[in-house]
């Protein structure tokens, strides 16, 4: 008899590949719209300051702006990198040591970026 905790890595990976079709949460729709608009926009030249660009377009990409600011600023200390390693230590445990890098990367991304969107799970 197998228990609920006996799952293979392939079973877990397959669950992540299932799209959330039909999920119509308004915040998800706004995020999707902002990302689609951003990706459809022409790329700017290298001589434009990215922080200035995001500040100018804050109203246009309101939901993406806080994430861009977090990604573009230089951290004043090593604390953010230490937090990242701490987060990785939480994800990789002795009982969860066969987690693929791609999945761990996604989990870390979600752990640190969902709060920026003020998205309550």
TrEMBL record:
It comes from the Eukaryota. It holds the Pfam family Dimer_Tnp_hAT. Residues 36-114 form the HAT C-terminal dimerisation domain. One of its GO terms (molecular function) is protein dimerization activity. InterPro entries: HATC_C_dom (IPR008906), RNaseH-like_sf (IPR012337). This is Zinc finger BED domain-containing protein 4. It comes from Eumeta variegata (Bagworm moth).
């Amino acid at each position: 008899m197998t228990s609920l905790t006996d799952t293979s890595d392939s079973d877990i990976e397959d669950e992540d590949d299932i799209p959330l079709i039909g999920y119509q949460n308004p915040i998800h729709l706004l995020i999707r719209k902002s990302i689609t608009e951003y990706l459809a926009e022409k790329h700017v030249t290298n001589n434009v300051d990215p922080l200035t660009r995001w500040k100018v377009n804050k109203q246009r990409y309101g939901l993406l702006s806080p994430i861009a600011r977090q990604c573009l600023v230089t951290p004043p200390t090593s604390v953010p990198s230490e937090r990242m390693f701490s987060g990785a230590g939480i994800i990789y445990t002795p009982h969860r040591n066969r987690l693929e890098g791609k999945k761990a990367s996604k989990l870390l991304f979600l752990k640190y970026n969902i709060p920026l969107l003020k998205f309550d799970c």
